[in-house]
């Protein structure tokens, strides 16, 4: 069973961090950015699904002189956009979010 004094210290330390304005900024910034990218990916995917469901002729249109349809190309765009949005998030996490985290660490140390 954990020592109550240690638990009280940890809780007080956690409370101090949770109330820190820099921590709140980090959480708000990171969450807002993540939700924005998630909404964008959802819109891309939903748009593709709606095109598949309601624009069959458009999606069946051949691209170039080959057998590849516009649906295949747009499907690849959906996949590539997922990788691109992930890369955008990682870039932001490695720059801005790490910067905010380091500032927070310096302040609470």
From TrEMBL:
InterPro entries linked: DUF485, Inner_membrane_assoc
UniProt KW keywords: Membrane, Transmembrane, Transmembrane helix
GO cellular component, one term: plasma membrane
Top-level taxon: Bacteria
A Pfam family assignment: DUF485
Bilayer-crossing regions: 32-55, 67-90
Protein name, per record: DUF485 domain-containing protein
Organism: Roseicella aerolata
Origin organism lineage: Bacteria, Pseudomonadati, Pseudomonadota, Alphaproteobacteria, Acetobacterales
């Amino acid at each position: 069973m954990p020592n109550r004094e240690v638990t009280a210290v940890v809780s007080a330390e956690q409370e101090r961090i949770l109330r820190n304005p820099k921590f709140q900024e980090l959480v708000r910034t990171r969450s807002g950015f993540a939700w924005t990218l998630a909404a964008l990916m959802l819109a891309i995917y939903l748009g593709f699904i709606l095109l598949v469901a309601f624009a069959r002729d458009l999606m069946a249109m051949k691209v170039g002189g080959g057998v590849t349809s516009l649906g295949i190309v747009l499907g690849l765009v959906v996949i590539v956009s997922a990788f691109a949005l992930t890369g955008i998030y990682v870039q932001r996490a490695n720059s801005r979010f790490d910067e905010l985290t380091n500032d927070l660490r310096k302040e609470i140390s």
